[in-house]
């Protein structure tokens, strides 16, 4: 870790106040063209090719309607190019450093500026930066970003591994019922965009986040990492790291000013030594002024959600830059204490107080992320607060959510159990893949670390369980190889990044896992679903789901649930009226992407109620209603069991359940 910089306070100093310049390239004036140039349409950025084709009436029906998840596959199989003509003035070009900043490109792309190749991208979750000063002109310019089909890229990469005699499971065993694409684990992209058991397959292409030109004369503040550390007498210390991006390759200096709630807590001249790529890091320990009365941040139901603006201003002789974040003062711990006769507790403490985690799991709220509005996100998160939840688990098959998502969670007191974006698969560990993941995880932690709502980082969703339970036949023949690769990715790489970048919250290698016990077992437990350690994911449709004795006496249930059908009103928007019958029509059956899902729903009803007789839309409506009653009662029974299961079994060590997060909060696919 870098040595702490000495702080030299200054009472009078004069600097320029010229600002860096940012020119957005967002807008409705892009064009999207397919590979053979038979389609060329106006495009919107941020966006994706699907929403552009819908807006231009090339795709004439709702992608969710009928079999359009299958009918529109041609869009994902094609390669698409996005281009735009834009103007810049001399104020931008005259700056010492001029960069193209791509906050999110989905996914495999080559970028050209004025027909000059600028660079490639291969990770949806990475912010890319390219030096474009030599290629930018005063006046008119043209940017072109050519994307390769994610499906084609994933297949091509898989085939290369096969030629090298190395299969990264699940191989060819993705369930046919999902009607999706194979080999999502070979590409750093929203894994569920290739399909999941709860949703459709729409592997998008496009510029899904902001894209801009940034012009600077010295440095910008990219990220601020803050750990709030309580001190005696209700005081606080801010363990702060500021990440700069600069044009310099030698030492430079400037005036740093930091304020909390409009009160200056530090004003100092600092010296920075950039690395070879121009990045510089400043580590500070800042006591909060005694004159500032700080109120702690608490999760929903435990207290108020007090947030404070932290403003950082950095001024050099060339320019002034600033960045403001909102922070809460709180501590969070994951308590794993020994239990007799065996096992460990597994619960959170916030500000020293035990927390029973009540909540749900969050999946991507739209298959086309650019279609999400801040109002819609707020509505979903507000609903969790009003339902008296205090935690959501951001599931590892989706995306790192928008800044607005975490800001709203901070405001509402919704803690976030945060997976990294790896789910239900094993992953490559070649140097190119690991380098990309290194950048991804480092950037995302630095972007998100300051949010009070984030309670925990988890390396993946269910990948430890996949190895332990031999989900795929390949594991039986190369188990030691896959175990070694697993440790290389989630322990030797991601865990080390978390320890380096964010020591303010716990890290688990997987969910479910045995927590600390997993470490003792060399990071892979024989039973990651143990009732005496860590967290569990529990799904079992065969027994009587309304009987609480069927459920595991676990320490923390981070995923559990049952399916039901959506309302007839929702289903009628995506299925022809003639197909709204019972028994279920083929059109309804094909929308069920969970293997044996409809039989499980029927069994859940049949255990306690009478199934409707054959008939038309009225009988289907009866079946839907019964499926929802069966689901509601099963979830009620299971949740109430977890809520009251607070005692420890003196014979087994089971019990003392301190968390229940059902699957899932939000739904995007009427099925």
Index terms:
six-stranded antiparallel β-sheet, Ig-like_fold, EC 3.2.1.25, alpha+beta, Jelly Rolls, 3 domains, glycosidase, globular, 671 residues, 31 strands, six-stranded parallel β-sheet, 27% strand, 16 helices, Beta-mannosidase-like_N2, TIM Barrel
CATH class call of the largest domain: Alpha Beta
Q: Average pLDDT, to the nearest integer?
A: 96
CATH superfamily of the largest domain: Glycosidases
Radius of gyration: 26 Å
Count the DSSP helices.
Answer: 16
Query: Helix share of residues?
Result: 10-25%
**Largest sheet properties:** 6 strands, antiparallel
Secondary-structure arrangement, i.e. CATH architecture of the largest domain: Alpha-Beta Barrel
Our estimate of the beta-strand percent is 25-35%
> Overall 3D geometry?
globular
């Amino acid at each position: 870790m870098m040595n702490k910089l000495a702080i030299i306070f200054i009472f009078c100093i004069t600097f320029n106040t010229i600002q860096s310049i940012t020119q957005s390239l967002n807008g409705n004036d892009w064009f999207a063209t397919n590979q053979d140039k038979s389609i060329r349409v106006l495009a919107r950025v941020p966006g994706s090719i699907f929403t552009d084709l819908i807006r231009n009436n090339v795709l004439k029906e709702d992608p969710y309607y009928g079999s359009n998840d299958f009918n529109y596959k041609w869009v994902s199989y094609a390669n698409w190019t996005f281009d735009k003509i834009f103007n810049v003035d001399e104020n931008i070009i005259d700056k010492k450093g001029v960069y193209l900043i791509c906050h999110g490109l989905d996914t495999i792309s080559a970028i050209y500026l004025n027909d000059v190749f600028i660079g490639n991208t291969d990770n949806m979750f990475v912010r890319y930066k390219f030096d474009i000063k030599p290629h930018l002109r005063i006046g008119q310019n043209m940017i072109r970003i050519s994307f390769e089909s994610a499906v084609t890229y994933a297949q091509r990469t898989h085939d290369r591994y096969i030629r090298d005699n190395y299969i990264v499971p699940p191989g060819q065993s993705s369930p046919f019922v999902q009607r999706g694409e194979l080999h999502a684990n070979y590409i750093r992209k929203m894994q569920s965009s290739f399909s999941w058991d709860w949703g459709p397959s729409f592997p998008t292409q496009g510029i899904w986040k902001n894209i801009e030109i940034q012009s600077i004369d010295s440095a910008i503040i990219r990220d601020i990492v803050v750990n709030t550390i309580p001190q005696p007498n209700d005081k606080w210390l801010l363990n702060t790291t500021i990440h700069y991006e600069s044009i310099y390759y030698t030492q430079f200096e400037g005036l740093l000013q930091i304020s909390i709630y409009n009160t200056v807590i530090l004003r100092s001249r600092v010296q920075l030594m950039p690395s070879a790529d121009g990045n510089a890091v400043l580590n500070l320990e800042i006591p909060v002024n005694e004159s500032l009365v700080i109120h702690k941040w608490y999760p929903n139901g435990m207290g108020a959600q007090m947030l404070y603006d932290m403003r950082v201003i950095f001024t050099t002789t060339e320019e002034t830059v600033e960045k403001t974040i909102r922070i809460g003062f709180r501590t969070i711990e994951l308590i794993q204490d020994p239990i007799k006769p065996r096992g460990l507790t597994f619960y959170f403490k916030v500000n020293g107080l035990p927390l029973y985690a009540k909540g749900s799991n969050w999946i991507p709220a739209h298959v086309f992320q650019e279609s999400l509005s801040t109002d819609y996100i707020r509505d979903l998160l507000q609903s969790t607060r009003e339902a008296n939840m205090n935690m959501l688990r951001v599931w590892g098959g989706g995306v790192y959510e928008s800044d607005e998502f975490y800001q709203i969670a901070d405001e509402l007191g919704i803690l976030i159990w945060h997976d990294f974006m790896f789910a239900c698969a094993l992953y490559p560990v070649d140097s190119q893949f690991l380098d990309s993941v290194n950048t991804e995880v480092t950037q995302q932690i630095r972007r998100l670390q300051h949010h009070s709502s984030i309670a925990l980082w988890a390396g993946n969703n269910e990948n430890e369980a996949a190895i332990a339970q031999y989900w795929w036949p390949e594991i039986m023949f190369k188990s030691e190889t896959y175990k070694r690769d697993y440790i290389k990715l989630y322990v030797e790489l991601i865990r080390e990044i978390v320890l380096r970048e964010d020591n303010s919250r716990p890290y688990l290698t997987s969910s479910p896992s045995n927590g600390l016990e997993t470490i003792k077992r060399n990071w892979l437990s024989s039973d990651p679903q143990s009732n005496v350690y860590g967290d569990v994911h529990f799904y079992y449709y065969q027994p009587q789901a309304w009987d609480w004795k069927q459920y595991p006496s676990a320490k923390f249930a981070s995923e559990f649930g049952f399916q039901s059908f959506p309302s007839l009103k929702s289903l009628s928007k995506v299925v022809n009226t003639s197909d709204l019958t019972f028994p279920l029509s083929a059109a309804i059956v094909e929308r069920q992407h969970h293997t044996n899902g409809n039989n499980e729903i029927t069994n859940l009803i049949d255990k306690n109620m009478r199934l409707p007789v054959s008939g038309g839309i009225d009988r289907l409506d009866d079946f839907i209603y019964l499926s929802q009653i069966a689901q509601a009662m099963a979830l009620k029974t299971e949740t109430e069991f977890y809520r009251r299961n607070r005692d420890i079994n003196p014979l087994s060590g089971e019990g003392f359940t301190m968390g229940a997060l059902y699957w899932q909060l939000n739904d995007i696919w009427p099925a």
